[in-house]
Amino acid sequence: MWEVITYGGGEYLFEVFKAVQLFFGGPFQTLAQVAGLFGLIAVLMAYLGPRQHLDVAYILRFAVFYGALFVPKAPVAIVDRIEGGNNNGVVVENVPFGMAALASMTSTIGDKLTTLYESYVSPPNDQKYHKNGMVFGATLLKSVPEVRFLDATMAGDMQEFISHCAFALLAQGVISVEQLEKSPDVWALLRDNAPNNRFVMQSWSNAAVTCNDAATNPQNGLNARMPSKIEEAEKHLGKLIWPKKTPDDARNVLLAALPATASDIAGINRSSSEIMRQAMMINAINAALDRLPPDEAAGAMASIQAKTAAERSRFQTYMTMGAVAARSIPIMRSVLEALAYALFPIVALMILLPSGLTAFLNYFVVLFWLQMWPPIYAVLNSIIYWYSAAANKAGAIMPNGLSDWTMWTTPAI
Questions:
Q1: Considering the entire predicted model, what is its pTM?
Q2: Partners of 76 in the beta sheet?
Q3: Which residues sit opposite 2 in a β-bridge?
Q4: pLDDT in tens, 299-326
Q5: E strand or H helix at 209, and its extent?
Q6: Residue pLDDT, tens place only, 45-69
Q7: Are 16 and 103 in contact (CB under 8 A)?
Q8: Phi, psi (5° rounding) for residue 78?
Q9: 79: which strand partners?
Q10: Could you give the residue ranges of the DSSP H alpha helices within 162-268?
């Protein structure tokens, strides 16, 4: 059994190896005979030429290459270190021995160099390239501010609560803008200060209920429904980060990865549920601010609205730039790797020609060169991690010296 190790794009390689297997089981035999005939003609022409040179080495080389590399078949397991998925570790039978051996040996060298580098120059475990790919921590943290309430009913009830209850607290000075922006738990701040003398419509009641009841009703209140909505958001975010996993598996990985990443990169010590709830509430407040009529956006609320619009524009710009770089660099290598393996049948035919030894050596060099990319990516990933960790930890520091995920620090993370 030969293992071919890749870093992303494992499903592509699985399809490529299946295609090569089918090609060698069908038209390759005929094409090999044609290549042998052309080779024999070239040898005879050289012998009939002025020097009368008979290239016996080519005949022996043809027999060795054909008999040792192409006729024997071997099973190959495709192992994707980053994406995994349903085809991770799946075996492709009857792959030409030469392709299986070359791909396995060169990919193993690249894998060993990558893991060796990251064992000595060691980012935290989740941030290592060979575990989660390029800039995993930055990718995860930039996705968190986009988390929202997925259930339309819950989102609508929360919008009503914020518009009629939370903004009233700001307007009346019960809580200040500074308290709201720097609160490590926005929902707790609004829930605990929800008044009994203001009323709001909620989906579960035919009549208006008090703001306090909307927030704390033990059966239908926003607080009672919050845990299940956070779980929904965790599954959704998990699937975005690990699309090959099931929603439950993706959530379980997220529950471990998000707190560790927030601590490693931003110095924030919060559970996954706490971070998700805070991000969801910040987005809910921003959405409510967008719906606020201009004549009502006065005083404290106007300042939050202006700041939110500027921060959102800057965030979208940075996110777009970062997403292009983080996604395109690894994809480029995966495409080139798949192309290199897909071209093996053509290279195999060239190997059977008189210049076949040169073709074989050049193909080996190309495969070896491609396997030097993962160690380079590991170096690049560690540099980005060190830089982003320093910048994010500085951005997450509150005026009191503590680090937390708040409306005040989110734009800088």
A1: 0.78
A2: 2, 92
A3: 76
A4: 555 555 555 555 555 555 555 555 555 6
A5: strand 209-210
A6: 665 666 655 556 777 777 888 888 8
A7: no
A8: -90, 115
A9: 5
A10: 167-171, 177-182, 186-192, 211-216, 222-241, 247-261
